[in-house]
TrEMBL record:
KW Phosphoprotein (keyword) present: yes
Database matches in Pfam families: HATPase_c (PF02518), HisKA (PF00512), Response_reg (PF00072)
Keywords, in A-Z order: Phosphoprotein
InterPro entries, alphabetized: CheY-like_superfamily, HATPase_C_sf, HATPase_dom, His_kinase_dom, HisK_dim/P_dom, HisK_dim/P_sf, Sig_transdc_His_kin-like_C, Sig_transdc_resp-reg_receiver
Organism, scientific name: Duganella zoogloeoides
SMART domains the UniProt entry points to: HATPase_c, HisKA, REC
Limits of the Histidine kinase domain: 144-362
Its EC number(s): 2.7.13.3
Protein name: histidine kinase
Signal peptide, first to last residue: none
């Protein structure tokens, strides 16, 4: 349906006549009798719109103008307008100004001219579809790449944690551990940024809003950026309000907004420079300014630094490290929260300022806090908590099992879904940590089979996977998982979930 021509000529016989002419040239078309039908058919798919000057009533023009305005980046909907003979009318001038990819054909128009114009239009439209397909393949590649990169990251991070437990006082081990941990965090962040690009372009990012304290956000941001600032001897000054400021926001995305912009400021600030982070509330909006003493921005750069994959340059003109997507993600996440991000600079060598505005909420001072996890990982009957780790990546399964054992859990490892189902039939564990993308019986199927076994309803079932998209999370919930963790996961996350489940069971047992 994306190759057909929608004809909108509601008066006279222009519509049916044009359809017959196009049929003789083997061009698929559909005649729309009303504006409502045109709108409906455009949503189903359109190669081009053929209309006439007298059809551009206020309603007809508004529909086409709105369709043009909300097109995706790859699309430039072609519209052919048959005009009256003679001087251009106000209707035609308005169409030229507001309908984008518009071609004017003055009536009476030769049949051959109309057909060749439409054939050329459809060829150009086909090129747009090729761009869309290339973008789709790129997004799928980025998502698959992120998943594949996360799989080896998981055993690397777990193995580093194992070294810490095995040699807590060995200085050489600590240096190696810290180095590997820094690189794993950096790679994880790059992978997450790539996946966010794919999710945004596919419209698959959904905010997980909750009450978020600004102080907690900035503490997290400081932790993420301290190492980079220290390495360049850059002083970051924090000027935050004493009163508590609360946002109704996605905590991870808000942290990402500020961390991306602060990291960018540190990257483009020379050794020994400074960055000032100042926050204030104005008209129920949080306004955070990040001002640096860095290399500054040229006036023309201000219009493109928020463009995806746009790389900044140093004073010497050399490209810096990074993917060129941090600022774009920051602005898009701010806008998703009803806010904005703006940049300004007094010029090259005179620093830059980024201003983030986000809506705040007013709530009481009493906030619900989750129970702290128990220090000892014990089941209700006092025995060690039994855990089953399932992953077809044997290194990932064995390293996580070893780490959990050191932390006091009773752990078994299985390397496939079928093996996990059999292991549960032999002995029901308290917790299962299972990969999803396994050959043969995958994690979804294995989870459903496990939940059908007697007594399995009490198992804490955790999906541990490289896929973090919303559809993967939905599928894990439907399969019976309690939680969905994205690789590489920190042991503390698993311990918190185990502790929270244990606390709930203790409360239920006491009733």
């Amino acid at each position: 349906m994306e190759t057909r021509i929608l004809i909108y000529a509601p008066t006279g016989q222009d519509g049916p006549l044009a359809a017959r002419v196009l049929a003789l040239a083997n061009l698929d078309s559909h005649v729309c009798a009303t504006v409502a039908e045109l709108e409906q058919q455009i949503e189903l798919g359109v190669g081009a719109v053929l209309t006439v000057e007298e059809a551009l009533t206020p309603a007809g023009y508004k529909l086409l103008h709105d369709v043009v305005a909300r097109q995706p980046d790859w699309s430039d909907l072609p519209i052919l307008l048959l005009t009256h003979h003679g001087a251009d009318s106000a209707t035609v001038r308005r169409a030229v100004a507001g309908l984008g990819n518009l071609t004017l054909l003055e009536r009476p128009v030769r049949t051959l001219t109309l057909i060749t114009a439409l054939q050329a239009t459809l060829r150009a439209r086909h090129k747009q579809y090729q761009v869309r397909e290339a973008a789709r393949r790129k997004d799928e590649f980025l998502a698959s790449l992120g998943h594949e990169l996360r799989n080896p990251l998981a055993p690397i991070r777990t193995s580093v944690s194992l070294l810490t437990h095995m040699y807590p006082d060995a200085a050489p081990v600590a240096r190696i551990r810290d180095m590997v941990e820094r690189q794993v965090k950096l790679l994880t962040r790059l992978v997450d940024d790539l996946l966010d690009v794919a999710r945004i372009t596919r419209g698959k990012i959904k905010l997980q809003n909750q009450l978020v304290a600004l102080q907690a956000v900035m503490t997290h941001v400081n932790e993420l950026c301290t190492q980079a600032a220290t390495a360049k001897r850059i002083h970051v000054a924090w000027q935050l309000p004493v009163s508590e400021i609360l946002l109704n926001a996605d905590y991870a995305r808000i942290v990402q907004i500020f961390a991306n912009i602060l990291s960018n400021a540190i990257k483009f600030t020379p050794q020994g420079g400074h960055v000032v982070v100042r926050a204030q509330v104005t008209d129920n909006m949080l306004e955070v300014s990040l001002r640096d003493s860095g290399i500054g921005l040229e006036p023309e750069a201000l219009s493109r630094i928020f463009t995806m994959f746009e790389q900044g340059t140093t004073v010497a003109g050399q490209f810096t490290s990074g993917l060129g997507i941090g600022l774009s993600l920051a602005r898009q996440f701010a806008e998703m929260h009803g806010g904005s991000v703006e940049a300004s600079s007094d010029g090259v060598g005179r620093g830059s300022e980024f201003v983030i505005r986000l809506p705040i909420v007013h709530v009481s001072e009493n906030h619900h806090q989750e129970s702290a996890p128990l220090p000892a990982h014990a089941a209700l009957d006092g025995r060690r908590m039994q855990v089953l780790v399932v992953d077809d990546n044997q290194d990932a399964a064995d390293s996580l099992a070893a780490l959990l054992e050191i932390d006091g859990f009773d752990v078994r490892a299985e390397y496939g879904g079928a093996g996990a189902v059999s292991a549960v039939a032999e002995r029901i564990p308290d917790m299962i940590i299972m990969d999803l993308g396994m050959p043969g019986m995958d994690g979804y199927e294995a989870a459903r089979a496990i939940r059908q076994q007697p007594g399995a309803d009490k198992i804490l079932l955790i999906a541990l996977t490289g896929w973090g998209q919303s559809d993967a999370r939905r599928r894990t919930t439907e399969a019976g998982f309690d939680h969905h963790l994205v690789k590489p996961v920190e042991l503390a996350q698993i311990i918190r979930l185990a502790g929270a489940r244990h606390n709930r069971e203790q409360v239920q047992a006491a009733r």
